[in-house]
Automatic annotation (TrEMBL):
The keyword Magnesium applies. It comes from Candidatus Erwinia haradaeae. Pfam families: Prenyltransf. This is Ditrans,polycis-undecaprenyl-diphosphate synthase ((2E,6E)-farnesyl-diphosphate specific). GO terms for cellular component: cytosol.
Length: 247
């Protein structure tokens, strides 16, 4: 049995998540351990992104969300931030053809207004070129923060209350959810964090309310198909009760 056939067989036997989100941590520490500049770690991390996307397609996930650049990352050295954003532009330009080849739809979430016009145009162009694809939905979170997401949604509701199109008592969970990122996508089932930290770092605070979490000490550039598979096997063993009790 070929590796592809084995993966397909395993997919049929396992309880599968539909939407996986990943906090990609450890690029800088990986580079330090290698005696290289931090930017080398981010470049190696880009290769891990490609591997993760390829695996998600093979595993037939509905959605994959990657935390690429937090709204808190602006506090990093300016040279590193500029290099990170430039790398993002290069990867977007290079990968659109491959995304179309594999029927992947790109969706960028976060406050992109702080980016240069060049990067904003690059994001818009990449999304438009993949908008009709019907396979994996690939969400890339850039300048994203869970608190920003919730505040952005609350402001949208406040505008509706102010103009009279919404009454305060009509605001429910689903009302706010509709104004948050990823509202039109299946809920997050599994959040993976690499790099050995045990926190969610302001990532999908609302959307991950009932997600399972899986943490690993493996640094992001070393994250490969075997590690991804291990996370999914762990997920398959979880009992998801969504606030209820086991039957």
């Amino acid at each position: 049995m070929s590796p592809e056939d084995q993966l397909q067989y395993q997919n049929q036997k396992m309880v599968k998540p539909r939407h996986v989100a990943i906090i990609m941590d450890g690029n800088g520490r990986w580079a330090t351990k290698q005696g290289k500049l931090r930017m080398s770690g981010h470049q190696a991390g880009a290769e891990s992104v490609r591997r993760a996307i390829s695996f998600a397609v093979s595993y037939q996930l509905d959605a994959l969300t990657l935390y690429a650049f937090s709204s808190d990352n602006w506090s990093r050295p300016n040279q590193e931030v500029i290099a990170l954003l430039e790398l993002f532009v290069l990867v977007l330009d290079a990968e659109v053809k491959n995304l179309n080849k594999h029927d992947i739809r790109l969706n960028i979430i976060g406050d992109t207004t702080r980016f240069s016009h060049r990067l904003q145009d690059c994001i818009r162009c990449a999304e438009e070129k993949t908008q009709n694809n019907q396979g994996l939905i690939l969400n890339i979170a850039v300048n994203y923060g869970g608190r920003w997401d919730i505040i952005h949604g609350v402001r949208a509701l406040a505008e509706q209350v102010r103009d009279g199109s919404l009454l305060p008592e009509e605001i429910e969970e689903k009302t706010l959810s509709a104004h948050l990122c990823l509202s039109a996508i299946v809920p997050v089932d599994l959040v993976i964090r690499t790099g050995g930290e045990y926190r969610i770092s302001n990532f999908l605070l609302w959307q991950a309310a009932y997600a399972e979490f899986w943490f690993t000490d493996i640094l992001w550039p070393d994250f490969d198909e075997n590690v991804f598979q291990g996370a999914l096997h762990a997920f398959a063993k979880r009992e998801r009760r969504f606030g209820g009790i086991a039957l």
